[in-house]
From TrEMBL:
Cofactor: Mg(2+)
Coiled-coil zones: none
Domain of life: Bacteria
Organism per entry: Bacteroides luti
Pfam families: polyprenyl_synt
Biological process per Gene Ontology, one example term: isoprenoid biosynthetic process
Gene3D superfamilies referenced in this protein's UniProt entry, alphabetically: Farnesyl Diphosphate Synthase
Family from the record: Belongs to the FPP/GGPP synthase family.
Keyword entries, A-Z: Magnesium, Metal-binding, Transferase
Protein name, per record: Octaprenyl-diphosphate synthase
Gene Ontology MF, one: prenyltransferase activity
Amino acid sequence: MDRLSQIKSPIISDLEQFKELFNSSLDNSNPLLQEVLSHIKQRGGKMMRPILVLLIARLLGKVTLSTLHAAVSLELLHTASLVHDDVVDESSERRGQASVNAVYNNKISILVGDYLLATCLYQAAFSSNIEIIKVVSQLGQDLSEGELLQLSNVSNIEISETVYFDIIRKKTAALFSACTKTAALSSSIDAKEVENARLFGEYIGICFQIKDDIFDYYDDREVGKPTGNDMREGKLTLPAIYAINNSNHAEIKALAVKIKSGSASDSDIKEMIDYVKNNGGIEYATKVMMDYHAKALRLIESFPESEVKSSLTSYLDYVVDRTK
C-alpha cells in the first residue's frame, strides 16, 4: 500500500461520498459548459485538501453531510482559482494536462471559473452552517488578495521575509486552514478547538508552500517543473530571501533587483540559484518548514492514539517529504 493510500484508509467511504457529491456538482445541461467541466474532472489529483477536511472531521467527531458539502465547496473554489490562475499566468498546462485556456480560450476560462465560484457558494449553503459559509467567502477574498499582494511585491525592491509569509498565508495556507476550520465547524466543537484546527491547517499550508519553493531549485526531471520558474516570474521565495539578506555582496543584491524587475537572463537566474544553494538558502528554508511541521504536530499530540491521528501525522510527513 502506498503512502497516500495509507493516509486515506480511515476515510475511504467518506472519500467515495465526497467524489460522488463533487462530480454531481459539476453536471450541467449546457453542452459547452459540460464539455469544459468534463475536461476539468479528468485532471484527477491527489485530493489533498478534501482528505484533510475528512480526517479532521473524523478526529474531532464524525463526517456529516455538512462536512461533505464544505469539502466540495472548498475543492470547487480551489479548482476555480486554478482555472483563473492559468489565465493570469498564461499557463498552457495543469497537472500534466492542457489547461482550460489552452484548449478553449481565456474568455471561456474566466466564465467557467466564475461558474465554479458560484457553484462553490451554492455547495457551502447546503452545509446549513453560516460559519462555514463565512469561511468559504473569506477564503475567496484571501486568495484574491494574496495574488494581488504577490503581483505588487514583484515591483517592490525590498526583499522581505515578512512579506513572503504574508503572501503565502493569504494564498496556500489560507486554503489549508479553511479546510481544517470548516471541518471543525461541521463537528460543532468549542471556539478554542476550532482555532487549533485552523492553525493546524495554516501550518500545513506553510509547510506545503515552502516545500514547493524548495522544488524550484532542482530540475524538472526530479520535481516536474522548470528550475528557476519562480525567478522567471520575478518571484524571490524563502531560500533566496534568506541567502540574499545574509549576503554582503552588492552584486548579488543587484542581481536580486534585476530578477524582481523581470529583466534577468537565464544565466542570471542560474547564478542566483547556485548562490542560494551554496549559501544556506535551502537548509534555512528546510529548517523553517520543519519548525512549522513540529508546531502542527503539537496541536494534535493530546488526542488519543487512533488510525485517524496516525493518518494526520502521516499526512504532515507526506507534505514535507514529497518529491513533487
